[in-house]
């Protein structure tokens, strides 16, 4: 029943967005152009220096596309988790308490937006990279199901980090600057191999903000064979742990919410 209501709200959100088709198409194209320009900057650096600490342009492209597709899934199905602040400031969160589904599902169904540009770009880049790896005998076709698995796990990790950061808004109200650090800046950083960074920063990306489990650590097994297949299982376990902790934290934060009375 709850999930049926959730998908009904998503369908209603999609219909409302499609009423403004020009804005829908324009925002999709602008997002795609932004992501293309970001990857081109990475590609130009790699083409000049051939590799970064032993990582080729295709391997960095793999890291980039995995994190991009994970982010795309997260922001598609839970966009307004990232924008909880506006509901806290305006008091609009109050209306969610009278709806027949959990507040988190209601929040996730708001402003549903399929990031088609990012989805197409990420898929295009990752397929080119996989085709290259396969052509030179670096990987076999098993890379495809494993990659899909780590992208799904990665979206859960990103969702969990986003939810935990937004939940701090129940105490801080304003969390946009913190989100820029824990989500946007962090995701930009892990597009590159973590070996580029100092140990203290690498430690953060493997513990407090475990983004390294989304692409870097799995790539060490998939592309480099530097670790065992256990790292794929570890990635799934980290995703499950992050999700459990973030949902527990959300419940605590929600219990502290003070209604505006609107």
Account of the 3D structure:
The protein is an all-alpha fold. It has one domain (2-255). It has helices at residues 2-18, 21-49, 57-77, 84-90, 103-109, 116-135, 143-167, 169-172, 176-189, 199-206, 216-222, 230-255, and strands spanning 51-52, 55-56. Strands 1-2 form a two-stranded antiparallel ribbon. The longest helix is centred in the first third of the chain and has 29 residues, at 21-49. The two termini are 28 Å apart. The mean pLDDT is 85. Keywords: Membrane, Transmembrane, Transmembrane helix.
How are the secondary structure elements laid out?
Layout: H1 2-18, H2 21-49, E1 51-52, E2 55-56, H3 57-77, H4 84-90, H5 103-109, H6 116-135, H7 143-167, H8 169-172, H9 176-189, H10 199-206, H11 216-222, H12 230-255
Antiparallel strand pairs: 1-2
Transmembrane segments: 21-46, 52-69, 142-172, 200-221, 227-247
InterPro entries: ABC-2_transporter-like (IPR010390)
Keywords: Membrane, Transmembrane, Transmembrane helix
Summary, kept brief:
This protein has helices spanning 2-18, 21-49, 57-77, 84-90, 103-109, 116-135, 143-167, 169-172, 176-189, 199-206, 216-222, 230-255; strands at 51-52, 55-56.
């Amino acid at each position: 029943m709850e999930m049926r209501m959730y998908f009904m709200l998503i369908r209603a959100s999609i219909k409302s967005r499609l009423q403004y088709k020009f804005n829908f198409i324009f925002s999709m194209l602008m997002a795609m152009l932004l992501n293309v320009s970001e990857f081109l900057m990475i590609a130009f650096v790699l083409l000049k220096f051939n590799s970064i600490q032993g990582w080729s342009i295709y391997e960095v492209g793999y890291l980039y596309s995995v994190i991009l597709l994970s982010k795309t899934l997260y922001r598609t199905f839970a966009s307004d988790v990232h924008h909880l602040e506006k509901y806290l400031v305006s008091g609009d969160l109050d209306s969610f308490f009278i709806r027949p589904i959990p507040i988190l599902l209601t929040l996730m169904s708001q402003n549903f937006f399929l990031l088609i540009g990012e989805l197409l770009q990420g898929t295009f880049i990752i397929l080119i990279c996989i085709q290259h790896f396969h052509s030179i005998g670096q990987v076999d076709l098993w890379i495809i199901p494993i990659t899909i698995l780590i992208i799904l796990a990665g979206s859960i990790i990103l969702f969990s980090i986003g939810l935990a950061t937004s939940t701090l808004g129940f105490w801080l109200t304003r969390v946009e600057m913190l989100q820029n650090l824990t989500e946007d800046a962090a995701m930009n950083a892990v597009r590159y191999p973590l070996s580029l960074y100092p140990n203290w920063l690498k430690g953060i990306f493997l513990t407090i903000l475990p983004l390294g489990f989304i692409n870097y650590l799995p790539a060490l097994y998939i592309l480099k064979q530097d670790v065992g297949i256990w790292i794929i299982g570890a990635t799934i376990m980290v995703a499950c742990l992050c999700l459990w902790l973030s949902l527990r934290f959300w419940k605590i934060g929600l219990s502290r919410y003070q209604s505006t009375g609107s």
